[in-house]
Write a structure and sequence with these properties.
4 helices
Length: about 110
């Protein structure tokens, strides 16, 4: 993980570590969100055409939300790691909460 490679002098290391864990949760293929969407995709394939279409639309919506959250997360992580920029704690917490909320919404 990118956080493990960071210099110990990077400020806000704990916040960055939590942000990186949330990023992995929603973006890694075998992360929590990936596993949950796989279950939905399997149900879609087993269903009729209407079920398939509805569940695939749900997955597309989740993917769009994930992309928006993950895109901002990776921007913060890369800026902190390579440019040593300050992390807005409020924004980091909102992104972590958004990732957790998105993951919890997928059933």
């Amino acid at each position: 993980m990118i956080i493990e490679a960071l210099d110990e002098s990077i400020p806000q290391r704990d916040t960055l570590s939590r942000l990186a864990a949330a990023y992995k949760m929603i973006n890694a293929p075998l992360g929590e969100l990936g596993r949950r969407t796989l279950v939905i995709s399997t149900r879609a394939l087993a269903g009729d055409d209407a079920t398939y279409e509805a569940l695939e639309m749900q997955i597309s919506s989740v993917a769009a939300q994930r992309d928006a959250i993950a895109g901002r997360m990776i921007g913060i992580l890369e800026s902190a790691a390579f440019a040593h920029t300050h992390v807005d704690e409020g924004e980091a917490q909102r992104l972590i909460a958004a990732a957790e909320s998105l993951t919890a919404s997928v059933r």
